[in-house]
Design goal:
Helices cover about 35% and strands about 25% of the residues. With about 475 residues, it is of the alpha/beta class. It has a nine-stranded mixed sheet with strand order 19-18-17-16-12-15-14-13-20. It has a six-stranded parallel sheet with strand order 8-7-6-9-10-11, with helices on both faces.
């Protein structure tokens, strides 16, 4: 059963309340009259973004579906007056777009007033291609990895554009992944047809700006850690996504890595008892360039490296870190001190339950990247990352005297499985219209620990973790 609504008739009424009443009465769909200020799934120069975000959220919460008849707007017109004219100009190329679910997927497409029109118009998604269109922002090291994985390891998605201020770097990356268009700014990328989501892999100092722009355009967001470089900016980014009614997933890829997933499942089963001691280390072969190591750009060792360990501490222990005491030094790479960073650090953790833990960070191994995690529980232990040939193990869990090892195929690069699974999880949340599994709140919590650890290291004393 469907109800027809005109946004102009609802002035002053909360869209969320209207949707909830419609759902309670028994309606399962809304037919919406097209208005330039209010098109939930298409950006228009005159759009009322706050009301659009409210309606998108209400659709997602109630499960109502939306259909609307929309004249195709000439976004590409070189005439600024024509592009900004409103209400929507009724050109002969009028089509009916039937939209299903809160995501706004095109499920039907019919020619309008001109019978000579083709069945598919430029800028609309073909019904046979329901893959999520992802735009990549940042063509550097992490961006290149993400682009390759979207192209080869995520069947439900396709790369529809790459944006980078270094256009040449973007073009080189594009050539490696079937040639999606390249743009010199995120603003240009956001105008790309079939763009559903944005993957942000720029420097950390630009994350807030990118999140705000993507959210204002109504695009789902997967952002590399950290969300931002201050708690205030982190909150601003989370708020921007919430107000726009879009998903914000944070790139903590180890939560998706099979070895860590198994460890989490083992601990959550209860067979190993209560987690009591967390231990994790991350050693890199060498430090990043000084320009990147600068805390103003990357956040420094606690945020750039430690944030992964702090997220694992919360996740695996199912507990919150409430206090840290950190120590750092610059032994192997004194140049890091000139930008206010260190090459090694140790962070002691105290959890709300009374459990304890430690995190070790370094940037000077002679044997490659070394990442290991261990949780000691009251009835057993789990390990991740023992030797180069093994990536996980467990002991106990009801069977004393046993030691089981999880082997990893040597041909698979470390954490690439987690990065691919992370992307598939993000795409799955969009397609299935459900929340993401690693939220902005998770990103903020881990960032808060990193901020406290950095302060503790600088001030030489224990520091409580800021919760709000």
């Amino acid at each position: 059963m469907k109800i027809a609504l005109d946004p102009y008739m609802l002035r002053g009424l909360p869209f969320g309340e209207v949707c909830r009443i419609a759902a309670e009465i028994g309606f399962d769909a809304i037919e919406l009259s097209p208005r330039p200020e209010f098109i939930p799934f298409f950006t228009h120069p005159r759009a009322d973004r706050a009301r659009v975000a409210e309606f998108r959220t209400a659709l997602r919460e109630t499960g109502l579906e939306l259909s609307s008849v929309l004249p195709l707007y000439r976004w590409s017109s070189p005439d600024e007056d024509e592009r900004l004219a409103g209400p929507l100009r009724r050109h002969p190329d009028e089509l009916c777009l039937c939209l299903g679910g809160a995501r706004g997927r095109v499920v039907a497409l019919h020619a309008g007033t001109d019978p000579a029109l083709p069945r598919r118009a430029a800028g609309t998604r073909a019904m046979s291609d329901a893959r999520v269109g992802i735009g990549l922002v940042g063509a550097g090291r992490m961006g290149s990895i993400h682009a390759r994985l979207v192209h080869g390891s995520v069947p439900g998605a396709r790369l529809v554009g790459i944006a980078d201020v270094n256009v040449e770097a973007g073009r080189r990356l594009s050539a490696q992944v079937v040639g999606p268009p390249v743009f010199g700014s995120i603003d240009a990328l956001l105008e790309t047809p079939d763009l559903d989501a944005v993957l942000i892999a720029t420097s950390s100092s630009r994350h807030l700006e990118m999140i705000r722009l993507a959210a204002s355009a109504g695009k789902e967001i997967l952002c590399e850690k950290p969300i931002a470089l201050t708690l205030a900016d982190t909150d601003a980014a989370i708020d921007a996504a919430a107000r726009a009614g879009v998903r914000l997933q944070v790139g903590f890829m180890r939560r998706w890595e099979p070895d860590y997933v198994r460890a989490k499942a083992r601990l959550a089963s209860g067979a190993y008892g209560r987690p009591m001691l967390f231990k994790s280390l991350q050693f890199d072969p060498e430090p990043p360039p000084l320009a990147f190591a600068d805390p103003a750009v990357s956040g420094g060792i606690m945020i750039d490296m430690g944030i992964h360990e702090f997220d694992l501490a919360r996740w695996l222990m199912a507990d919150e870190v409430v206090e840290v005491h950190a120590f750092g030094s610059t032994y192997a790479h004194p140049g890091l001190a000139t930008v206010g960073d260190v090459d090694s650090a140790v962070v002691n953790l105290r959890f709300a339950s009374g459990a304890t833990g430690s995190v070790e960070l370094a940037r000077n191994t002679t044997y490659g990247e070394d990442v290991r995690t261990e949780v000691l529980a009251t009835n057993g232990s789990v390990w991740i990352g023992l030797l180069s040939a093994t990536q996980g193990a467990s002991s106990g869990g009801g069977t004393s005297g046993t030691f089981a090892v999880d082997a990893l195929a040597p041909t698979i690069p470390r954490f690439e499985r987690g990065l691919a699974a992370q992307l598939r999880g993000f795409v799955g949340a969009i397609v299935e219209d459900r929340p993401v599994e690693v939220t902005g709140a998770d990103g903020r919590a881990a960032f808060g620990i990193a901020v406290a650890a950095g302060r503790s290291m600088r001030e030489g004393r224990p520091v409580e973790v800021e919760r709000d």
